[in-house]
Amino acid sequence: MTLAQTQFRPESAHRVHGTVADTMEAAGPQVWEDMTVEVALSVMAAARTGHLVVCDDDGLCTGLVTQVRLRAVRDGSGYTDRICLRDIADVIAPFASPLTTRAEAERAMRSRRLGALPVVDDQGSALGVLVLALSR
Fold it and tell me: By its UniProt entry, which CDD domains does this protein fall under (predicted)?
């Protein structure tokens, strides 16, 4: 690596000017929207993750579910083993583009009260997930 390739920027500058692509996490497990709550919880436990990207039959992102949401549904009085992810997704479009600035994405997530937001390409395929830090 040469010095010309290395750029140091203060963290505050990165937060303001960085894009979602700079800070997103890998999409992680992607599951189909007809998966049941129990199966999704098992996938989540095996993957040791707090969220799953939900996709349609064409593999396009349709939403995101969190472990908190799945447990709340499972523990609810109206729960049946036939409830599918399409019925309970926490996050439904619009999603973030990888070119969206981090500041714009954070504002959108805070206004919609989201802890995580899928990042998708122009065709709707999941590229990653932006997770909002709770400490800010």
Answer: CBS_pair_SF
In this prediction, the residues of the chain whose per-residue pLDDT falls under 70 are 1-17, 134-136
The pTM (predicted TM-score) of the whole model is 0.78
Q: What is the dihedral of CA 63, 69, 73, 74, to 10 degrees?
A: 110
Burial class (CB in 10 A: 0-12, 13-18, 19+), 123: exposed
In whole angstroms, what is the distance from residue 2 CA to residue 64 CA? 40
What residues does 17 pair with on adjacent strands?
Answer: none
Domains and CATH numbers, the chain: 16-131 (3.10.580.10)
Instruction: Check if the beta carbon of residue 106 is closer than 8 Å to that of residue 16.
Output: no
